[in-house]
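Weekly structure sync - notes
Attendees: PM, LS, DV (DV joined late)
Agenda: review two folding runs queued last week.

Item 1: First target. Sequence and structure tokens pasted below for the record.
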Amino acid sequence: MEKLINFDDQITISSDDKILNGRLVIPEESQAIIVFVGDLGHVLHNKTALQLADYMQQEGFATLLVDLLTKEETLTSTQDLDINHIAHRVSDVRNWIAENPQTEYMNTGFFSMNTGTAAVIKALNKPDSSINALVSLAGRPDLAQDSLKNINTPVLYLAGDADNANVTFHEKALSNFNSFSKLEVIADGGGDFLSPPILQKVALLSKEWFIRHL
């Protein structure tokens, strides 16, 4: 039976005197929200994120997709600066969720991709950015090595076995994962994960992780 949607609209979040654009969807009786963070902070037009968000909504989770860099910032910043800057924006989004009357009561999870994973991990080192769970798809935990040991959040790392470089990134970071974390290598996974059977596998693993921890 299809979930009824109580709220589905564009939202804005202020951060560093910038306006971040997002889309918030709240199904009926939602008690938890999943925030999607994409590569270099961009997610609103990411096909993988959009399909996974739709899936999570039908499982009863509220979802928030928000671009964490403006177009102007994307054109003028470097990768290292982006990750640190996005980490700050992640904290601002977490604070917005805690202060917004529609979401303040919800447990919070994040779903991140590529460099977005490094940004979320860095943000989790800040006391005001605690979350209940994180799922990382083809993420770059190796870019946040100094922060990995300091987080207590349960993290599910998903890597595709067809992406040798990404598997290597995770293996390099594995020794720094906390005891609440897990690495799952998806057979035939890689690239954008848009193949229906692969995307379904990602969705199921993510749903199970969020149900367990949110």
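Item 2: Second target, run right after the first with the same settings.
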Amino acid sequence: MVVAAQFQTYTVEEFLNLDLPEGQEYELIDGRISVMAEPSGEHENLRSELMVELRMESRRRQLGLLVHPKPVLQLGPKDTRKPDLIAINRDAWNRQTQSEAVLRESPSVVIEIVSTNWEEDYRHKPLWYAAFGVSELWIVDRYPNRKNPKIEEPTIAIGQLVTSRSILVEREYEFQSFRGKQRIESRVFPDLEITVEEIIGYGKGI
């Protein structure tokens, strides 16, 4: 293992071999090491319970999907991300992670739970994941008013990857927003019977 040097840039391969301080999690953004913010207890409750629900749904419907928390996605030669959750075909996971748990091909679903960096969740991550080819992106926002001024109540936005009409990017997401007692609609989990209220309640231990 190699000790990280301040202000130096790294490739993903170099980053994965660094001897970084324990007790924190890291991403590589444009070659620079970024310390991930510590999640709240509610954030962790929600992620854990949603992971269990989606794993059970995959088994019930025999979807062949694995659901994993915070995997390493290699988006480019100098970029990694660790989303809150992913859903990925079992064979694709096993094929890519035999030597190390790093995904260089896109999963079917990425789920991000909004925390303090809501601008990144809404503005940057959809661009990153669309370029990577993730078919479906969930943004789970528990924070009305305090964060994104356009979110007036807890909202789950689910985006489907489409060809962009813009000359700036090849692909983007078309989002549909769900609130309250609305049942969310996922193409990857088409028979999932769960409402926004139920998912948000996971964070409170309900």
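Discussion on item 2: DSSP finds five helices and 13 strands in the chain.
Action: LS to circulate a short write-up before next sync.
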